[in-house]
Design goal:
With about 550 residues, this protein is mostly helical. The chain has 2 domains: about 400 residues, Up-down Bundle (Sodium/glucose cotransporter), CATH 1.20.1730; about 110 residues, no CATH class. The protein is about 75% helix and about 0% strand. The two termini are about 40 Å apart.
Length: about 550
Amino acid sequence: MLATIDVVILMLSLVVVAVVSIVASRGERSRDDYFLAGRKLTWWLIGISLIASNISTEHFVGMTGGAARNGIAIAGYEWVAAVALVFVAWWILPVMLLAGIYTMPEFLEYRFDRTTRSIMAALMVVFFVLTVLATVLFAGSTFLSSVLDLPGYLQRAHGMSAESADTLAFNIGVWGIGIAAGVYTVFGGLKAVVWSDLIQGLGLLLGGAAVSVLALIELGGGQGLAHGWQSFVEGQGDKMSLIRPWDDPDLPGLALVSGIWIPVLFYWGLNQFITQRTLGAGSLKEGQKGVLFAAGIKLILPMLIVIPGMMAVQILGEKLDPSQMDKAYPMLMKELLPVGALGLMIAAVAGSIMSTFNSGLNSAATVFTLDLWSVYVRRDMTEKQYVACGRNVTAILAIAACLWAPAIRSFDGVFGYIQEFWGFVSAPTAAVFFAGLLMRRVPAAAARTAFIAGPLFYLASRSPSWIWNESNAIKAGGLVEALWRYSSLSFLYHMFILFVLLVGMMGLWGMMKPLPEAAMLPDRPKIDMQRWRGSLPVGLAVIAVTVAIYILLW
């Protein structure tokens, strides 16, 4: 059980965040205010908010657990993301801010047509609820329930069975997170989200740094941080290599030059969940600074998340069950952090859970309100009605996510669940935007076909491994075994193959039935579009550091 002071610190921290967020966002009266924070976000708010929205229990449970099992290769997701953010700052962000859009689906109406916009919007809303929101609730509830030992308390205090206590504790966590994060998102909009991200993101980075330093001190045995690092490296062996076999479960080596770029570029450049705070930038210069600031933070994140998971194996030893590596980071926190500091770190992780949830919630409500409801149901809404609709939809989606979250328990791990579901959207979306930006004569019919055919092809690629297990497939032989072996490849390979096929299909369509004239991209900026002069040298520096890391840890 946590000490009383830790519990008090945790509760006070969450209350302070909620109050500051609501106060900071008071007086919102228009779409710009509620959905894009008045298009006045500064670079430091954008950068921290991007990181805080991204980091959640996926990292502190799934990524640290993957590192504990298989080594540093999983950090490739973070370092590849740093390079992807550079390309977002250089290319994607200027195009989107020049268009003056509120949402990413809105851009597709100007490039293709309204139906293309609506298809993407519908996919986004559904998958926001099924993946981003529900998985954050699931993983967050699991993490907090474990750290706070809620099942144990319910068993001792109320005489409940272990199974009943576990179920009730899980549901308390789901609805507690959903209601707490939903309330200030409903009332505050994006401005409330980014201010909560700022507080919780800074706490998370400082807390993660403290855990890493304490872990190095522990490994150093009183001889300093340098000796601790040397002891860590010597104890890891080949787990310190970033380049893994082609069939590695966390990050296959070949995927570094193929599939990983599809979900990473989609996530950081085309996903409303992330791009909404960049679309709210006060100027292109502020937006580019914020995105590159986030890229710089991404370079150091593995030191705060991935490496502590590996250190936990050495520090905890036999205390860490090899079959439950996802508990590595929570156990390391309990082992190293003193009373009071543990409460602050749990508050930071709880904050990261809420940051990710409220960011996804606000983005889903934005897409539904602006891309679906105002297009097909109420085209003549006033500014107040836009805000009211956004608030109502936010509440409804929060409840929907809370209701769906328990269903994830029937799947084999939250990471597997996210990969299987989010893959239906990322490759088709990336392909459509790629063709829309670089192939100006590709017609809307090709984009619509890609959005419909893409998820079906992905389903066909993944489903054989759901239908047959390895022994049954090998026993059947022939086509069944071949299909099973293909479907058992990493989802990153399937995304890359799907992306290439869809882009090829749209390119061929554009040659056979091209638009009469090359499509013109929107040009209606609502902010200052002067580029930041430092974007080129800073971006090149991020790329150079990433390359150096891969050379060093090859």
